[in-house]
Amino acid sequence: MTNDAPSNRGPILVVDDDDGARTLVALALKRAGFEVVDASSGQAALDLVATTPVSLVVLDMGMPGLSGTEVVEQLRARPETLTLPVLLMTGSGDEYRLAPDEPPQEARSGGAYLGAPPGGLEPGHVP
């Protein structure tokens, strides 16, 4: 599989405190031909973005310390990351949902949202 993204763009930053989820997302992106860097916390992500230009942030919403929404708020407060694309994701089906088919306000303000179905995902679940 080839990557049609411009070669002058930075890597994709994957941020999740869950090692397994972070590794899975990073592996899928690498297999698709993207360069990937990762961080295990919101603060580590902000530190990395301050020194490494990235083209996209894939960000878990529910992390200890700085949550995904707090990271987005800090990214939007910096002129150099104001327009940085962010894809918010969560493995929880209920924790961040306001209505069954509507992403939360935090996700709408952050950009794209990728969430689990209500009740979360069962092992072996294929949508």
The CATH topology assignment is Rossmann fold
Percent of residues in helices: 25-40%
Tell me about the largest β-sheet: 5 strands, parallel
> What's the arrangement of strands in the largest beta sheet?
2-1-3-4-5
Note the run of SSEs as H and E. EHEHEHEHE
Q: Write out the CATH superfamily name.
A: Response regulator
Number of helices: 4
CATH architecture: 3-Layer(aba) Sandwich
The fraction of residues assigned to DSSP E strands is 15-25%
Shape: globular
Number of strand segments: 5
Straight-line distance between termini = 23 Å
CATH hierarchy class name: Alpha Beta
Please tell me how large the radius of gyration is: 14 Å
Specify the structural class.
alpha/beta
Average residue pLDDT: 76
What's the number of domains?
1
List low-pLDDT spans. Answer: 1-8, 94-110, 120-127
Structure description:
With 127 residues, the chain is of the alpha/beta class. It has one domain (12-115): Response regulator (Rossmann fold). It is built from 4 helices and 5 strands; from the N terminus they run βαβαβαβαβ. It has helices spanning 19-31, 42-51, 68-77, 105-110, and strands spanning 12-15, 36-39, 56-60, 86-90, 112-115.
In brief, what are we looking at here?
The chain is of the alpha/beta class. A 5-stranded parallel sheet has the order 2-1-3-4-5, sandwiched between helices. The N terminus and C terminus are likely disordered.
Spell out the key features of this protein.
127 residues, Rossmann fold, five-stranded parallel beta sheet, 5 strands, disordered N terminus
